[in-house]
Amino acid sequence: AEAAAAKPGLLGRLMGRGAAQPVVRRTLDDEMLEQLEELLISADMGVDTALRVTANMAEGRFGRKLSVAEIKQLLASEVSRIMEPVARPLPIYAKTPQVVLVVGVNGSGKTTTIGKLASQFRAAGKKVVIAAGDTFRAAAVEQLQVWGERANVPVLTAPEGSDPASLAFDAMGRAQEEGADLLLIDTAGRLQNRGDLMEELAKIVRVIRKKDETAPHNTLLVLDATTGQNAVNQVKVFQEISDVSGLVMTKLDGTAKGGVLVALADRFGLPIHAVGVGEQIDDLSPFDPDEFAAALVG
Ligand code: GDP
């Protein structure tokens, strides 16, 4: 009970102890709607999305007395409705190797997510190759090697500071020769110099297209749930410097409930392929809109 109290859902915060009494009724009036809006905004849902959600909730119900349980259900179903269209696992293409470029700021969970994905695909009988494309961070390369060992997947590396595009090119060749199903390419996450990163990513794309003009088949942006509204900015920036095709949100196992995902879904409509729910290799789950909405509303 203490853990639950440490991580109250939205309505828990609005209703206080009333949330534990689902029969308590409140009138869905302007004051109530305003409180709801503030709550949704404070949960990183963004102003536009929060306003739309509360407007939808009020439609046809304004002035009615609703029980806490009914308000919860209403809010959860509005959130689910926004999230359902974006809840899509990573698409698997017939063309192999399927090349997945993984982008995101340092610390977002790229390395960990690549390890988890490799393990999942390996367990599904796929042949996977990892390219440790963040050649500027020796620690990231080492970490990826550890994940590769755990997942029993080869990790291709290059000397520290060397050209990531050249590694990606070699990895592409190796994946093709070995008949791999999936090539996961890690990338650097230094946003301090956006221009450099953009050039680096563009060069990786250019060279892998020399071996397969349809690659990369996915560009996965990894976002950290604990960064809240910052995630909106990260999507904007990475859309400018790469061809983001889908999202993974990590660290949803912590106190962050990932309300920003609702803003992201509403605003960008990018598929959410998976969510990170811990630091272990199996802690990557498909995104479940109903479960997410229920946890958010609480
Ligand atoms: P990178 O710099 O983007 O490659 O990030 P890492 O994969 O190294 O992850 C940064 C930190 O976040 C590490 O301590 C990971 O264990 C941790 N981490 C990654 N994903 C998750 C997750 O889903 N849940 C939790 N609790 N921690 C995570």
UniProtKB/TrEMBL annotation:
Span of domain SRP54-type proteins GTP-binding: 97-298
Keyword presence, tRNA processing: no
EC code(s) of this entry: 3.6.5.4
Domain AAA+ ATPase: from-to ranges: 96-278
Domain Signal recognition particle SRP54 helical bundle: 6-83
Membrane-crossing segments per the record: none
Membrane topology of this protein: Peripheral membrane protein
Catalysis performed (reactions): GTP + H2O = GDP + phosphate + H(+)
Superkingdom assignment: Bacteria
Subcellular compartments: Cell inner membrane; Cell membrane; Cytoplasm
Residues where GTP binds: 104-111, 186-190, 250-253
Record keywords: Cell membrane, Cytoplasm, GTP-binding, Hydrolase, Membrane, Nucleotide-binding, Receptor
Subunit structure: Part of the signal recognition particle protein translocation system, which is composed of SRP and FtsY. SRP is a ribonucleoprotein composed of Ffh and a 4.5S RNA molecule.
Function: Involved in targeting and insertion of nascent membrane proteins into the cytoplasmic membrane. Acts as a receptor for the complex formed by the signal recognition particle (SRP) and the ribosome-nascent chain (RNC). Interaction with SRP-RNC leads to the transfer of the RNC complex to the Sec translocase for insertion into the membrane, the hydrolysis of GTP by both Ffh and FtsY, and the dissociation of the SRP-FtsY complex into the individual components.
Recorded family membership: Belongs to the GTP-binding SRP family. FtsY subfamily.
Name the UniProt record assigns to this protein: Signal recognition particle receptor FtsY
Organism listed in the record: Sulfitobacter faviae
